[in-house]
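Running this now, will post back.
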Amino acid sequence: MLNINFYLSKNLTIFMYMKKMNLDNVFEIFNQDDEQVYEEAGMKFLMEDDTVLLNTVVRGIETYWKLDDIYTNKFPEQYETVRSRVRNKYFNKMFKYLLRINLNKLEPFFDTVGDLGYGTVENSLVEYINHFVLLEEYEKCAKIEKVLDVVQNLYYPEFELA
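Update: finished.
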């Protein structure tokens, strides 16, 4: 895949050079995770907040699929060679945030569902589970399923008959 850069000189002549884009670094923008961004801003404590963690996971999954679509349409042949590796790397990175979410506190779930919408949260978590099912990483699926259960029980609580 070629990345074309244009430069304007003093006499307004356009110069162009092409360099090979490293497909392994397609998602290089994501190498600096939210935790690093918050730390640089002096706000690392936010990554201990369950609402921030859940938002990070859900938004991260959404963002991945949007960028995946862009690269699939723009560079179909080149991107296909690294697509599964990029997805796996990125989804595993999001998983470390999911593990830190306290499932016993419901407020973060209400906050996230309120901010992003029930469908967005549920769909992102279902897509996340499906990814790990294909890889047969069922322990990860079970952990994501626990988060999904909490979200679904906010809106579809089980009723006990007395």
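The two ends are 65 Å apart (CA to CA). More later if anyone needs it.
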